[in-house]
Amino acid sequence: MNKKKIAGEKAAEYIKDGMIVGLGTGSTAKYLVARVGELVRSGLKIKAVATSKATEEQARELGIPLLDVNDVEYIDIAIDGVDEIDGEFNATKGGGGALFREKIVASLAKEVIWIMDDSKLVDRIGAFPLPVEILPYGYKVTLRRLNDLGLNPVLRMKGDEVYVTDNGNYIADLNLTKPADVIDIKNKLDNTVGVLETGQFLKMCDRIVVGTDDGAVVYEAANGAGK
Ligand code: 5RP
Question: How many angstroms separate the CA atoms of 199 and 98, rounded?
Fold first, then answer.
């Protein structure tokens, strides 16, 4: 049983005619996008904003109408994967390197859904290295600063080359000492020059859709809109 597929396809049920849809990035989001492609072929009328070049390419191949994020005032629903998430819906994202666009899209959305297999549910986030997008200019200075803050940054590589995001930036993956205090880390990162965006998505969703051995399970955010 493919739990990521179960979650992605279940989440597609929340998409209705006329919506502007934020399409996430990653292996779980791929199933969502594939399902949206099928629905569009069957007559669903939506427009989508992609959170990465990879998702944009997949959506284009499937004939999903795309909008530039600059041309939308809001997004009706954004659906995306996570790397880990706790019981309060604090999530870590960016394992796939698309965190900056993912956060812009989620911040524009009236409704946010995170999709995942059940391995992503944790008591406390922090075990998955926290991705942080940093400016290439002075990146060694930024890495040194993050290191001095005790955040143990590792510059993300792709083979022998530095990994470059869709935005032309670098990623530092922070190996946090556990237990991670998310607010303390947020404050430190907010005040670090050179850090452009972080993979901390704290209480930023309305519901999560989890693929399990028994099918899809939906959990609503405690206070309705999670944002
Ligand atoms: C990409 C992301 C992904 O949503 C996250 O890494 C989860 O990926 P996957 O569904 O492949 O496990 O944040 O930047």
Answer: 9
